[in-house]
Amino acid sequence: MTELAELEDPKAREVNERHGDDHGVNLGRLRALAKRLKTQRELAGRLWETGDTAARLLAILICRPKAFERDRLDVMLREARAPKVHDWLVNYVVKKNPHAEELRLAWSADPDPVVASAGWALTTERVTKKPAGLDLAGLLDVIEAEMKDAPDRLQWAMNHCLAQIGIDHAEHRARAIDIGERLEVLKDYPTPPGCTSPYAPIWITELVRRRHGT
């Protein structure tokens, strides 16, 4: 914790807090510290229990993802209110855990929109890597009906799933683009030069173009 405190940078905190993350540690330096520590399951647990955002990010980097029980991951996700902690926990831990599919189904139906967004993030992973068994048309039905009025983080996760269905599954591409055009979610999102807009029709079209070199 002392070492993390020494990495605190007021400018980094200012930038991070704009995104809802209450820490001031440069993530490159945090990763370097994690690389030096290597995997330490007990230390990871102690860091998580501090409740400190930077400590929890470090805990995620040095934990053993496959060692967590389902219920422990459920508790951790509900505790992870900082967006970066939430995202890293889902992407670096839950996706590698044997309970990921069970949690995907449970979280997707959760009344807490932040928890539900984790379920959608896991669904997006399956859309790309293991689509067999997924009802893609059914997912599009839900997105079409619920995304427009969903809270921000849930809306973002559903929009990512919409885009990924359109990018990875040509048979659903036209419908995915049509849903995006009608709902106009993130249509006016400020996108830096050189970056792809998160507006689904543009995102889908650009990624497909890159894949096919057209």
Number of strands: 0
Indicate the low-confidence ranges by residue numbers. Answer: none
Computed Rg: 18 Å
Mean pLDDT: 95
The general outline is: globular
Could you give a short account of the major beta sheet?
Answer: none
Q: Helix and strand succession?
A: HHHHHHHHHHHHH
Helical amount among residues, as a percent range? Answer: 55-70%
Question: Could you tell me how far the N terminus lies from the C terminus, measured between alpha carbons in angstroms?
Answer: 50 Å
Q: How much β-strand is present in the residues?
A: under 5%
Structural class given helices, strands, pairing? Answer: mainly alpha
Tally of alpha and pi helices: 13
Mind explaining what this structure looks like?
The structure is a single chain. With 214 residues, the chain is mostly helical. It is 68% helix and 0% strand. The chain is built from 13 helices and no strands. It has helices spanning 2-6, 10-18, 27-37, 41-49, 53-62, 70-79, 83-93, 100-108, 113-129, 136-146, 152-168, 170-183, 200-212. Helix 12 runs antiparallel to helix 13 (200-212). The radius of gyration is 18 Å and the shape is globular.
